[in-house]
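Appendix C reproduces, verbatim, an entry submitted by the partner laboratory led by Prof. M.T., so that reviewers can inspect both the input and the predicted structure.
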Amino acid sequence: MAVFKPENVEDFYEIGEVLGRGHFGQVCKVRERTTGTYWAGKFLKIRRSACSRLGLERSSVEQEVEILQAVQHENIVTLNDVFESRAEVVLILELVSGGELFDFIAEKENLLESEAIEFMKQILAGLGFMHSKNIAHFDLKPENIMLSDKVSPNPIIKLIDFGLAHLFCPGEEYRSSSGTPQYIAPEVISCEPLGTAADMWSIGVITYILLSGLSPFQGDTDEETLGNILAMKYEFDERIFKMTSSMAKDFIQKLLVKNPNERMTAEVCLLHPWIKPITRKQEARRNRSSINMKNFKKFNARRKWKMSYNMVRMCNRLVHLKLVRKGTTEPDPLQRQCESDVEDTETKPTSLLRRRLSSSS
């Protein structure tokens, strides 16, 4: 059971600069008073009553805390402390200062598959540990794959953001319509029982993007994207994948499988010839292959632009809603400082998209 300390967080940590803001709170850099160690303080607003629309339900925060306490692993962000007051919960997390993996890669002039694989190994190691604990992440995407720091020659991968993660109980049938459309598995869209295999689909999509700079199922709209996923509509365009090894394509194909039971697990992925070559010929072929850096840089630039664009739109919407509630034309300066979470805040809930898909078919 998650333990929430009733003490004042400022008695134990000095609150520093704001690192980011989201829908339900903000993240600040904090310094532990006894050791001088720096952490990230995630300040989350909690609903004061069941009818309130502002803030998170305490139960959802409690579940995130329980999951983080259960997944102590080198490649997963560490939870150090939890504090609770009447209006908010504060999670004291490992300070992950290296930025997003995709941003780190986009700064390079070129990247061999063998170099990309070193990152994939770490992602799979962290994910495999989670799955061994019967926990699924359910929100794997580039924004949630970070680096420990910017100065190490071999930075450590850190999986973050466990707000949608779920701990499975024996015999449980769990369904969810949450997630980012271009990364979610077919069974999420179809509202079928979910398992850890949904994360492996996301790994297939991330690997495809990493190698090609293209999103395999991305359409002009979210509805079209979800339709492409259900139809398994993707391909390996020879012009885009001309420098990609056949082993890498095979790795992706064994993850982008509609039947969850037929997808590779994280453990099996680590034994796949693309990750762990069996012969010298396989290793040599892999080492000659590289990712499509020109396309990858374009993809990452578009992704960052979209995040910034959605942040501005969400801020404007929040300001407008607050003004309507107040019945005034005077803007609240604090509201203008809002910043969206790293996920695509304008993405419609998949449950709504599913209804639209069914009505148009």
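Residues 169 and 192 are 17 Å apart (CA to CA). Additional entries are available on request from the coordinating office.
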